[in-house]
Design a protein that fits this description.
The protein is of the alpha/beta class. The chain contains nine helices and 13 strands. 34% of the residues are buried.
């Protein structure tokens, strides 16, 4: 579904703030960023985010922000269904729930009843949990790989809140920590001033333009993604290209073949 232009209020016209979240710097930064938004105080984000009878696709036309304090656990062990890239110590966390994009095949549509976006403002608690897990990881001779954008596209938020930047900076003095940033975003230029690190892996999903247009609603075009990837490689960052999912349709082999030829 592509956003309607006239019927709905703009994205982030309303921001719901947990009472306990008000004291955090990330909350203040977000409220300053959207100074004209209507602010509604709530006691618990779940009472709003998890309520019954929500329409995911309708909400996608006018996404609201929810600022909340995450409770433990702050880090999750990867499961067999996740692409771990060969890392035996593979984990993920959830700085944000839900995504700005609206890919029709995305598991988030079945995982959450709401299309609104939850930002957890107590990022320091997540960082502390990662530091603890580093000290007790099951394979101590192997690094810990942390996927920071498994339940969202974190880089797509970078012009809103620089959470990807914050995690990259956090990793700088953690010799045994690796970060994976999964994305379809074209906003790498918002990070291009950072010094490249071998510990950071940007995993870009690429699809034929037909899939981008018909299935990956509100995402950057293929050309914009390739431009962002080219900039990242030029700057010296590690990049992984992902073709996930491969969607079967008439002439799909031709489209995916042309995609591969375009990037090789």
């Amino acid at each position: 579904m592509i956003k309607s232009d006239n019927t709905f209020l703009p994205d982030f016209s309303h921001i719901y703030v947990e009472s306990d979240a008000k004291k955090y710097n990330l909350t203040r930064e977000c409220l300053d960023r959207f100074s004209k938004a209507n602010i509604i105080e709530i006691s618990d984000y779940k009472s709003f985010f998890n309520r019954n009878n929500q329409d995911f696709q309708t909400q996608k036309n006018s996404i609201k922000l929810i600022l909340a304090v995450k409770k433990p656990p702050f880090i999750y062990k990867g499961t067999d269904i996740l692409q771990d890239g060969g890392f035996r110590n593979f984990y993920y966390n959830t700085p944000i729930l839900n995504c700005l994009y609206n890919c029709d095949y995305c598991f988030l549509q079945g995982m959450y009843s709401s299309a609104n976006i939850v930002i957890f403002v107590n990022q320091k608690d997540m960082e502390n949990a990662v530091e603890k897990e580093l000290s007790i990881r099951p394979y101590p001779n192997d690094p810990l790989m942390l996927s920071i954008s498994y339940n969202t596209d974190l880089m797509a938020f970078e012009n809103i809140l620089p959470i990807t930047r914050s995690w990259i900076n956090f990793s700088k003095n953690k010799s045994d920590l690796r970060l994976e940033v999964r994305t379809k975003s074209a906003l790498f230029n918002s990070l291009s001033d950072l010094t490249p690190s071998e510990k950071i892996l940007f995993s870009w999903t690429l699809s034929p333009e037909r899939v981008v247009t018909n299935n990956e609603f509100n995402t950057p075009t293929l050309e914009r993604r390739i431009s962002a990837i080219s900039l990242a490689i030029k700057k010296g960052w590690k990049v992984r290209l992902c073709f996930d999912p491969v969607i079967i349709y008439d002439n799909w082999e031709k489209d995916y073949g042309e995609l591969l030829n375009k990037i090789i």
